[in-house]
Amino acid sequence: MDREIPKSERLKTLRRRWGKVAIGVAVAVAAVVIAGMMMRTGVKRSSINTGKVDKGTLETSVAGTGNVVAAFEQIINSPISSRIVEVYCKEGDTLVEGTPLLRLDLESAENEIKRMAEERQSKVYQSQQATINSHTRLSDLEMQVKVKEMAVNRLAAEAANERRLDSIGSGTGERVQQAEFAWHTGELELEQLRKQLANERRVQEAARNMSRLELSIFDKNYNEKQQTLEDARLKSPRRATLTYINDRIGQQVSQGERVATIADLSHFKISAEIADTYADRVAIGSHVVVKSGSTELTGKVTHVTPLSKNGVINFTVMLDEDDHPRLRSGLKTEVHVLCDIHDSVLRIPTGPYFKGPGSYDLFVVEGDELHRRKVQLGDSNYEFVEVKSGLSEGETVVISDLTDQRSNSTLKLK
What integer pLDDT is reported at residue 65 of this predicted model? Predict the structure, then answer.
């Protein structure tokens, strides 16, 4: 015979049944949560770099690239067409002013100098002979003028005497006319001689000036030839290092052909280039920061090429510390040309994420997670980037390049 189950027993059984269901549901939810947490994409803290958003001064700059080159470099060209006879130095030698580099065959140039020296002496003799002839000619004319003056004075006295005789009745009018005619004729002849003498003096002076000019022109050419011959002895013009020399003995070299290059390898400058879109920001006198590894050097732009080539412009930077031990010829550097100064702006450290002003998806650190956020960035320099919107002072942002994670809105920090 069935016995009725007490109500308290039925309630206890029901509670046990619902408890089992609740436990099962809780286990299932926990499993889902744990699985979700395990499946969520994450990054290791050690694999990323972060930076704080702060407020400060931002001196904007534009970036280019550069090469370290010798502050002084001089190409030595052959001043004549000749042949290399001897070589006295080798590349890498340290030179002092006047050090012979190599010897050219100068026989033809020396013979030309000798011929010109003889020609000059001949011109000097010709000039001296012309001067003597000129003096002789002038002396003859001066003597003729003096003789003619004496003759005119005598004719004047005779005319006066004839007039006196005619006044006392001892002479005739015809004789007076003849005497006065002879006197006036003599005066005209004297005047003609005087003009001839003056003209001769001017002619001789012009001839002497022409002779001096011709000799001056010849001397100028002669001195240029001598200087060319001296330059052809090819000596170092200053203390420097020999970086190139044509050491092929017997080789023919043309006039103007490079035979050696010297450089001062104790002082350096930067040969830089930058995209021509920044041409208006690079000017002579602009301040520059040059970076090579952890080394930072300052300098100024001293020369800018006026034309763009292959989308870039070239410029030269003279360094404030051009003998820094880190510098060596051919070293690649970053070049940052400083532009404007902005005060009290939000900024974050620069990094590989930054490609220029514009909109970016950056990850902001919030506890153990990274949350993607739309950020507007502006000007920059080699240290900081201006934040225009999207971040607040004091926040921490990832400055590593996480473009491969841009499809995730949240990342777990591991």
Answer: 93
User: pTM of the prediction?
Assistant: 0.54
pLDDT tens for 76-113 read: 999 888 899 999 999 889 899 989 999 888 888 888 88
How many CB atoms sit inside 10 A of residue 358's CB? 11
Phi first, then psi, for residue 238 (nearest 5°) are: -165, 175
8 Å CB contact between 72 and 263: yes
**Band of pLDDT at residue 238, cut at 50, 70 and 90:** confident
H-helix or E-strand spanning residue 372: strand 369-380
In order of 55, 234, 300, 376, 397, the CA distances from 394 in angstroms are 9, 67, 35, 17, 10
Residue 24 CA to residue 13 CA, distance in Å, equals 17
The string of DSSP codes covering 220-287 is HHHHHHHHHHHHTT-B-SSSEEEEEE---TT-EE-TT-EEEEEEEEEEEEEEEEEEGGGGGG--TT-E
Pairing of strands 42-43, 410-413: parallel
Give the closest residue to 210 by CA, choosing from 306, 126, 297, 316. 126
Confidence of residue 36 (pLDDT cuts 50, 70, 90): very low
